[in-house]
Amino acid sequence: MLFFFSFTPLFAALFLSPAASERGKRWEFALDFLQILIVSAAFYLLFLYSSWSQLTDQEWVIRRAATVNARNLVLTIGFLVRILASRSRTERELYARVGGPVALYSLGFWIGKHGISLWSVRLGTWFDLGWTLPFLLILLVAETWEDRPDATEPRRRLGLVPVTLALLATLSLPGVAAALLMSRGAISDEQAYLLCAAVGAVQICFFIRLILTLSQQRRTFDLLQSSEDRFRSLFERNLAGVCCTTPDGRFLDCNEAYARMFGYASREEALRGSPIELYVSQAAREEQVALLRRTGSISNTEAKRRRKDGTLIWVLHNVTLLHDEKGNEFIEATVLDITERKRLEDQLRQSQKMEAIGQLAGGVAHDFNNLLTVIKGYCQMIVDSTRPDDQVRGHVGHIDSAAERAASLTRHLLAFSRKQVLQPKVVDLNSLVLNLNKILHRVIGENIEMLISTAHGLGTIKADPGQIEQVIMNLVLNARDAMPTGGKITIETANVHLDEAYSREHDGVPAGSYVMVAVSDTGVGMSAETQSRIFEPFFTTKELGRGTGLGLSTVYGIVKQSGGHIWVYSEPGKGTSFKIYFTRVDDPAEPHPPPGQSTAPQRGHESILLVEDDRQVRELTRSVLASCGYSVVVAENAQALAEICSRHLQPIQLLLTDVVMPGINGREVADQVLARWADARVLYMSGYAANSVVHQGVLDNGIFFITKPFTPSALASKVREVLDHVPHSADRGALS
Predict the structure, then answer these.
(1) Given this model, what pLDDT does residue 519 score?
(2) Which residue has the higher pLDDT, 3 or 155?
(3) How far is CA 692 from the centre of its chain?
(4) Per the CB 3.0–4.6 Å rule, which of 475, 533, 607, 626 could disulfide with 631?
């Protein structure tokens, strides 16, 4: 019996799945194995044991051999069927490596038994190798087998019909056999009891197995339902738009975020439409489908899409071409609205471009101002030394006029690049605008109406009043040029509070309280492309000879350097409005006296230390100061300055130093000189703002500064002003 039952696991291997012993299915596996064991035992007992007492020894050997041969044949055929029916490469390899030795054993057993019965060969001879060597092969298979998961093979689903037939066959096999034997009268009572017991045991195992299977199915269904609920929630609550479509342009499904993104009122409304309508063109949709069929997926791609109302948005999408269980194609996509990010990127690129142009403009203006200082200085010296009727005097006047125009250009460049020197005060914008009223009326012409609307209780701002006047003047002139046939210009002031929503839409503008000045016109307006470039230097839409393209770039630079923000709103044919926001302060406004000529004396006798690295500027400045009666000591670099500080014995009343020099800056020069002559005054000169004496272009308290290019008379007046100034304690602290 042990010999016969030793083959029961091989029968079980034919019927049981290799994955049936997974955790959670062990009871089902045990019951299935028990049913196979009962059926095997019933047949062995039916054909051998129950009739053994009635057979002779020779008949019993023959019956035993026939039964074993039948069993071996069934096993061999069973393994062959499993090898052919298995879709998994791993299963095919397993059944082939076990079924091969079984087939060899079956052949060897058949030959051995025939040898014993036909040739009277005794047991324990070489014929026994026919069935013993295959057992050795099976042991080697078990020893060398390595389970390799076949991840590439498709997972099979066992259908309902094969499972039902297999269970019914297992359940009814003993009963069928008993019915056949009883119909022929070839079964004894003992055999009938055996078959009935087998049928009952198999039924019990079957129903227990069925109960466990149903319980497992219910648990599986609950898990699947829970998983479905989680993924449905993830799909519907996802902030990203998710959709499934067919390649021919039909919606299969989408979530609410997708519907909202494209302007639909609900998911149902979106599903009634077509995804083709959301593309810029049908050709774009066809191109994407063709690309998907070639590559299978599209990852992190930016594209323009059309909302329901026709407006265009930027999206970032990930798209995959998949197949359902029937092999039909469908497209699964995840879409993010990146319109706001693209807008911020455009603003950043524009800001970086403006910053780069500003750096270039500031560097050019610095070097150019040194040249203009020399040109204008020597022009004035020639004019002062010639007679009024001298012809040379007229020629020099033209040179000086051209140099002044060039200096005006550099001032515009410095304003744009935010490297001019500002002297801020607390300003009342209402008073400033009203004081400009007469001048503005003279420059705009009679065919243009100008309206000034000032807000009551307007807050104050801190800015350079002269620069703010230039901003308003440039904006009014720009508005005038946009209305060649006449129109209306409105200047408006107001207290405004910019909230977080405005701050998010306008990058770089923090929320808070501001004072606004707006200049609006009813002119020709601007396109979006023009608006993106209006603040660039030398960009102009005017015909050749009518504009330099520096007016609005100057406005931009002054506003930014003053800590303000400027935004333009314009539509072609509907006019333009420039709105400037300055941070509101609580201090009272300071008086702003009109500019006038200095009446300070031009000459003196003090000792002045001049530090300037440019040779031409240094020679001009020394000549001007010497002609005014001053004693001038000159240093062209840091080494010469160090020698003067260590060897010069006479006191120095004034230090006149350039701000930007190779190897040393103006602040370091002043520190070195004040350490030697503590009572010396300091006057800085430069062609543009440098952080050693200014912060963000704003002049430090107590600092005296003269901007290049300057004239000899302006230099002499400024030097005299500094020497005659009575310093306060705060000024002395700033100078040190």
Answers:
(1) 92
(2) 3
(3) 38
(4) 607
In a shared domain, residues 463 and 534: yes
Q: How far apart are alpha carbons 399 and 397 in whole angstroms?
A: 5
Residue 575 DSSP one-character state:
E
Provide the terminal-to-terminal Cα distance of the chain, rounded to the nearest Å: 113
Alpha-carbon Rg for the chain, nearest whole angstrom, is 50
Residue with token string 């000032």: 454
For 216, the 3-state DSSP assignment is helix
Question: Does residue 183 share a domain with residue 43?
Answer: yes
400 or 567, higher pLDDT: 567
CA distance 509 to 157: 62
Containing 624, the helix (H) or strand (E) segment is helix 615-627
Residue range of the domain that includes 253: 238-337
pLDDT tens for 650-681 read: 889 999 998 878 888 888 899 899 999 988 99
Please give the Cα distance from 541 to 544 (Å, whole number).
Answer: 9
CATH code (residue 281): 3.30.450.20
Helix and strand counts by DSSP (H, E) for the chain: 24, 21
> What is the DSSP-derived secondary structure letter of residue 599?
-
The three-state DSSP-derived secondary structure of 263-327 is: CCCCHHHHHHCCHHHHECCHHHHHHHHHHHHHHCEEEEEEEEEECCCCCEEEEEEEEEEEECCCC
Position 452 in a domain? yes
With a cut of 70, say whether residue 442 has pLDDT above it.
Answer: yes
Length of the chain: 736
620 shares its domain with 654? yes
pLDDT of residue 437: 83
At 583, which helix (H) or strand (E)? Answer: strand 575-583
Whether residue 615 sits in one domain with residue 690: yes
User: What are the structure tokens assigned to 351, written together?
Assistant: 């800001």
**What CA–CA distance (Å, rounded) separates 613 from 637?**
6
pLDDT recorded at residue 156: 46
Mean pLDDT, rounded, for 341-349: 78
Residue 707, H or E segment: strand 704-707
Per the domain annotation, does 704 fall within a domain? Answer: yes
* Boundary-marking domain end, from 399, 417, 435: 417
Burial of 730 (0-12, 13-18, 19+ CB in 10 A): exposed
- At residue 7, φ and ψ (nearest 5 deg) are -95, -5
Same domain, 621 and 665: yes
33-47, 150-164, 220-234, 659-673: which is most confident: 659-673
10 Å Cβ neighbour count for 574? 12
Full-model pTM: 0.44
